[in-house]
Amino acid sequence: MRMHKPPHPGEILKKDVLPELGLTVGEFAAHLGVSRPHLSNLLNQRAGITAEMDLKISEALGQLPGLWIRMQATYDLWQAEQAPRQHVAPLRKAA
């Protein structure tokens, strides 16, 4: 189990990427071709990165695809590890 909570990708976009680029939420949303409320939900951690959004952000930032969705998967897995759940016993090979 991971000890530290990984950041939500929206948090990184909001706190690091947008200020570095000098863009508002509305400007970034327009550039990506998404609605401002849709991007706002992502930046405020009320929504996650989809494969389509990963491609849009990666293209806009000149990155290889996959970075943002992997960050989302890491965040989601950490969240799931923190939640109470019924553990599943490992399967055993038949003799």
Automatic annotation (TrEMBL):
<protein>
    <submittedName>
        <fullName>Transcriptional regulator</fullName>
    </submittedName>
</protein>
<dbReference type="InterPro" id="IPR013430">
    <property type="entry name" value="Toxin_antidote_HigA"/>
</dbReference>
<keyword id="KW-0238">DNA-binding</keyword>
<dbReference type="InterPro" id="IPR010982">
    <property type="entry name" value="Lambda_DNA-bd_dom_sf"/>
</dbReference>
<feature type="domain" description="HTH cro/C1-type">
    <location>
        <begin position="20"/>
        <end position="68"/>
    </location>
</feature>
<dbReference type="Pfam" id="PF01381">
    <property type="entry name" value="HTH_3"/>
</dbReference>
<dbReference type="InterPro" id="IPR001387">
    <property type="entry name" value="Cro/C1-type_HTH"/>
</dbReference>
<dbReference type="GO" id="GO:0003677">
    <property type="term" value="F:DNA binding"/>
</dbReference>
